[in-house]
Amino acid sequence: MKGSALVGVLLLASGCASGPRTDAAKAFVAEGLSAEKRGDHAAAVAHYTRAIEADPKYADAYFERGYSNVQLRRSADAPGNSRDYEDRAILDYSEAISLDPMRGDAYYNRAMLHSSRALYREAAEDLLSAVKLKPKDPEPHLRLARIYESKFEGMAMKAGEHYEKYADLGGRDLEAREQARQFKEFRKRLEGAPAPGKPTTEEDEKKAQELYAKAMDLLKENKRADALKIVDELLTAYGRTRFVQEMLAGLKAIQDAYKERKEPPK
Hints:
Blueprint: H1 3-13, H2 20-37, H3 41-54, H4 59-74, H5 82-99, H6 104-116, H7 120-133, H8 139-151, H9 156-168, H10 174-192, H11 202-220, H12 224-237, H13 242-246, H14 248-258
C-alpha cells in the first residue's frame, strides 16, 4: 500500500478524516458542544446523532454523545429510564474506542460506568488502558488503586503502587496521598527484609494467621508495644504470604496509628 493511501486509512480509522461528510459532522458536533454549555444535553444528543448520521466514522461525535447521555442519566428531569442513558453511553464510548483506540478519555469514562455497575474487572481493564494512553493523568491511578484495594483479594500491593503513582503525578486527594506515603514506608521495610529462600508454604500461611490473631488479642488487652512487635514480624518475615497481602492495609494502619505513641490513646 502506498504511503499516501496508508495515511488516509489511518486518519479514517482515528475518526479524523477530512471531507464533506466529516466537515458536516464537525459542524453538528460544534452545535452539540454549544448545547452542552447551555446545559441542554437532550439537544446536544440530537446534534451528535446528526453528526453520526453525516459521518458514522467520526469518533468525536460518539464520545461527546456518550458524555451527554451520562449527564442525562444524572438528571432528574430527563425522560425515560436512567439506565437506558447509561447503556447508550457505554455503547457510544465503545464505538469511539473502536474508531479511535488511542482515546484514553473514552476508556476512563467507560470504566466509570462499568464501576457504577459493579463490573470491576471490566473497569480495571479500561483503567489500565487509560493509564497507558494518558501517562500524565493521575486520576486513572486513583480509581485503579481503590478498585484493587476494595474489590479484589490479594491486590494490596498493586493498589499501593497506583496510590504512589497518583501522588507522584500530583494527585491532590489527601487520603490517597496518605495511602501512598504508607505504601512507600512499607515497601522500604519490605525491601530491607531478607529475601525468603523458598516460596511461602501452607505452614507459613498458618503461622501468619496465628501471629495476626495473637496481635489482635494483645491489642484488645491494651498491650500495644507487644502487638506492634508481632505486626513488624508479620510484615517482614511473612510479608509475602497471601494472608498478609490481603491484610496489608489493616496492618499498615495499626503501625501508623500506634508506632510513634508513647502512651495508648485515652
